[in-house]
Amino acid sequence: MTDSPILFDVEEGKVYAWCTCGFSKKQPLCDGSHRGKTEQKSLKWIAPKTGCVYFCGCKETKSAPLCDGSHSNI
User: Fold this and answer.
1) What is the 3-state secondary structure (H, E, C) of 40-71?
2) pTM assigned to the model
3) How far apart are CA 65 and CA 70, in angstroms?
């Protein structure tokens, strides 16, 4: 987990599993590390268009999975 947004290339129509717990070693995406540690599950997100997005790294965003600047308040 990081307090900074994570720049990530996405493809239109592709489904991404954003890590909600911070345990994943493949941030910002889920690698299943949450299993047995928390009840949290990944958040499925479909990219609306191809390009770069900033996924939330602090897990405090109110517009999950995208960064909304919440890390500035941590």
Assistant:
1) CCCEEEECCCCEEEEECCCCCCCCCCECCCHH
2) 0.85
3) 12
pLDDT in tens, 7-57: 999 999 999 999 999 899 999 999 999 888 888 899 999 999 999 999 999
Euclidean distance between CA atoms 18 and 35, whole angstroms? 15
Q: Give just the sign of the alpha carbon dihedral 62, 58, 64, 11.
A: positive
CB 26 within 8 A of CB 34: no
- Containing 15, the helix (H) or strand (E) segment is strand 15-18
For residue 66 the two structure tokens come to 């995208």
